[in-house]
Predict the structure of 2-phospho-L-lactate guanylyltransferase.
Amino acid sequence: MPAPAPGYVVLLPVKPPARGKSRLVGIESHERADLARSFALDTTEACLAADGVGAVLVITDDSYFAADVARLGAAVIPDGVSGDLNETLVQGALEARRRWPALRPAALCGDLPALRSADLDAALAAATGSRAAYVEDAAGGGTTLYTAPHDLFRPAFGPGSAAAHRDGGAQPLAGDLRSLRHDVDTLEDLETVRGLGLGPRTALASVRVGSLG
């Protein structure tokens, strides 16, 4: 049987790497920027390789990073609502609907350097239907993925986002989904996901950081 047509567009908001990942403390600023860029590129590549993903729309104000993800095959738009992640995602979903009206939006954290396409596909397959759905992070309380039909797309990322999504009617997605649940904010987080298998850019960037080599 032929594979089903891809049904999702992944919305990937990425801060300019030079300003992102401020909680990666104890390393030089250029090392932090290198890791942040690598996290986002590895996440993008894993999304592009997923069978259920028809397009990836990266939202960033960094022109150099935009060129990097465009070379991978992602579409890129500037952040129209800097400082408000959820409004950024709503605007991104509107642009995605204009470009790919048949694809359902899925907002994803850009700091999943161990993401496996199979885990993303499993989550997206489980999320099909008329309800919103989300994946809670491994730490508990946060969200790494949120998806909903366009008319129900109301992301609530931020502190307590898992409860906010659940209270808004979204369905929590069960299953292991380990690589999808482990976002990276700190060097300790990075050591945790190393055992899951880092993406190639993050693996190289972490070697360049002396304390992680």
